[in-house]
């Protein structure tokens, strides 16, 4: 059956279209003023002194790991309940991945599990803000810093969120965002790295720009150089976000709070409509957390997730599973990672079904989703 409702989609209006068209009418299509403005805008939301915009959330992770100095022989501890780029981007830098289990309520990386996993080779602890609920950054930072490591927050789900009044982007040593169409704001494809460490941001900026610098204070060449001069001092990649997409991002950011309020209202409506059903568990919301709900991760506890998935799809409702545990993927299985390593994350994944979540959902849409779920469980 053709889906009536996808589980996620972009929210684009005429102001977004005009912002993109204005760039197309101008002189700069890339590395120009729209990009500089977008990076300033993202830094403002994150509460950081700067931001480095890149071509995707995956590129943001790769750039962040490179800027953090992850190298061959280092270990990166991360969650299996995430999109696999959180792990694989560290592998591209030569790191060994160590999966630690998640907290049963939020699905976020469990600080106690991380504490049991750290070694003297741990370089980065990388937690994901699952579904938009921020990680327990204070506890994770304490564990990471105690091991001489950095805390990376994969905030692909949570731009605009906060914990105890501190914005996502200022909770960890380095934070990455994603601006894919289903995310909380979009640049079509895109991402960003933010941090309070200006040296780390400078390294990130060089990495995403193919590794070269025009900063004369960093040059190794002696004597005065011509205006054409630049140096490549380390490896990098071309992860530069075009101005066309940056302009879309800045336009979207003007409505970020509106998007957030609507996502919270949808979450509240789901919570109310699905409350008190023994077979179901609605998302956890810890005290002090101000989530930016990217997903609505419903859990069905009676082992019938596949049947519920098929029931919803047959009813025209786009649902999804977020996620298959990363360590179950064939790449990791071929390298000795096994089922049973992270039992809490695996149980969460077995139960989880993401219901439609995007700002343009109407109350009637949400009620239709609730009706189908309740019909399935006989409530």
Account of the protein in words:
By secondary structure, the protein is of the alpha/beta class. Helices cover 36% and strands 14% of the residues. It has 13 helices and 15 strands. The chain has a 7-stranded mixed β-sheet, with helices on both faces. The protein starts with 13 loop residues before the first helix and ends with a helix.
Quick structural overview:
The protein has 379 residues and is α/β, with parallel strands linked by helices. 36% of the residues lie in helices and 14% in strands.
CATH architecture of the largest domain: 3-Layer(aba) Sandwich
Which H/E pattern describes the elements? HHEHEHEHEHEEEEEHEEHHEEEHHHEH
State the strand order across the main sheet: 1-9-8-5-4-2-3
- Share of residues in strands: 5-15%
Overall shape: globular
Distance between the termini: 24 Å
Helical content stands at 25-40%
InterPro entries: DegT/StrS_aminotransferase, PyrdxlP-dep_Trfase, PyrdxlP-dep_Trfase_major, PyrdxlP-dep_Trfase_small
Active site: 183 (proton acceptor)
Family: Belongs to the DegT/DnrJ/EryC1 family.
Keywords: Aminotransferase, Pyridoxal phosphate, Transferase
Tag the structure with descriptive keywords.
Aspartate Aminotransferase, domain 2; 2 domains; pyridoxal phosphate binding; 36% helix; seven-stranded mixed beta sheet; PyrdxlP-dep_Trfase_small; globular; aminotransferase; alpha/beta; 379 residues; Aspartate Aminotransferase, domain 1; Aminotransferase DegT
């Amino acid at each position: 059956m053709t889906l009536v409702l996808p589980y996620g989609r972009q929210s684009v209006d005429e102001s977004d279209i005009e912002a993109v068209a204005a760039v197309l009418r101008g002189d700069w299509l890339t590395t120009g003023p729209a990009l500089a403005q977008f990076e300033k805008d993202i830094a403002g939301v994150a509460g950081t002194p700067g931001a480095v915009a890149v071509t995707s959330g995956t590129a943001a992770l790769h750039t962040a790991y490179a800027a953090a100095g992850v190298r061959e022989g280092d270990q990166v501890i991360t969650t299996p309940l995430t999109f696999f780029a959180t792990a694989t981007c560290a592998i591209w830098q030569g790191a060994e991945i160590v999966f630690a289990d998640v907290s049963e309520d939020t699905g976020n990386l469990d600080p106690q599990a991380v504490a049991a996993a750290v070694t003297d080779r741990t370089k980065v602890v990388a937690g994901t803000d699952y579904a938009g609920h921020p990680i327990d950054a204070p506890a994770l930072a304490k564990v990471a810093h105690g091991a001489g490591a950095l805390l990376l927050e994969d905030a692909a789900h949570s731009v605009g969120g906060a914990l105890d009044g501190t914005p996502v982007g200022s909770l960890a040593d380095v934070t990455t965002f994603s601006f894919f169409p289903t995310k909380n704001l979009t640049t079509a494809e895109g991402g960003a790295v933010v941090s309070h460490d200006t040296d780390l941001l400078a390294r990130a900026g060089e990495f995403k720009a193919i590794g070269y610098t025009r900063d004369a204070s960093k040059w190794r060449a002696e004597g005065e150089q011509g205006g054409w001069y630049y140096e490549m001092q380390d490896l990098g990649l071309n992860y530069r976000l075009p101005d066309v997409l940056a302009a879309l991002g800045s336009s979207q950011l003007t409505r970020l709070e509106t998007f957030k309020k609507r996502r919270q209202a949808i979450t509240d409506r789901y919570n109310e409509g699905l409350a008190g059903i023994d077979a179901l568990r609605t998302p956890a919301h810890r005290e002090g957390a101000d989530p930016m709900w990217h997903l609505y991760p419903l859990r069905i506890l009676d082992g019938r997730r596949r049947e519920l998935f098929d029931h919803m799809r047959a009813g025209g409702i786009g649902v999804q599973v977020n996620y298959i545990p990363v360590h179950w993927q064939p790449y990791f299985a071929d390298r000795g990672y096994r089922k049973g390593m992270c039992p809490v994350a695996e149980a969460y994944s077995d139960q989880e079904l993401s219901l439609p979540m995007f700002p343009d959902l109407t109350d009637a849409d949400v009620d239709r989703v609730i009706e189908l779920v309740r019909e399935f469980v006989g409530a």
